[in-house]
Amino acid sequence: MFATCDSGDLTRDDDDSSACQGSLCLLLPANADANANANANTKTKENNMTAPFNLAETDRLLSTTRAVRRRLDLERTVERAVILDCLRLSQQAPTASNTQKWRWMVVTDPGKRRAIGEIYGRGKQFIAQARGEIASDDAQTHRVYDSAEWLFDHIAEVPVLVIPCLEGRLAGDAPNGMAAAFYGSIYPAMWSFQLALRSRGLGSALTTIHLFFEEEVAKLLNIPKDVMQVALLPVGYTKGTDFKVAKRQSVEEIVHFDEWS
Fold it and tell me: Which 8-state DSSP code applies to residue 72?
């Protein structure tokens, strides 16, 4: 499995409309199965007696913020103020030692978006290689790849391309602890940004393909050499907001208490 080519694109699919299973149904909004919804409502009312937030809405936001590609509205303009509002919220995310070295490149110029699209498109080979390792009966993952391949052909048409960056560069031989602190100083902010977008009717997808050609993008956008790009998020309003909970493993299958078992 080629996992480094486009980490966000290969995990959360905007086109996955499969029904949830098991305990995930407790997170679904009102259009879910009636019995599961009744149980969720009861549980939510009990929790909301002490919770500082509306759990039903909070859980819906967290569980239905998908990686959106094909449902991005390529025709609708995204207001600069909306992007700034969402990035302002992202600044509340934690950073290592409170360094706050995050920087954001927001690209709206059509010519520059086309140029980035040409660079990004050269990474299509990586998706093709990775897809060859996916089982033919894994329909959900193949839908993810269909969506990722669509983005290669249309990324230049997406109204806004956002490139999260960090001041400083991570050495190639950096120990794991240093790498974790480095990327851990921007990924929480990126996710906060994506959640803020979702709450306002916009969508995005975390992609990393262009990083194979980072220097070319840096030259195009005049990004300094001591600033490291860490991802690219295509951003736009979404066609509809009815995104669903994706099928995932039961949490009991992936959690270990006190020791690995």
Answer: B
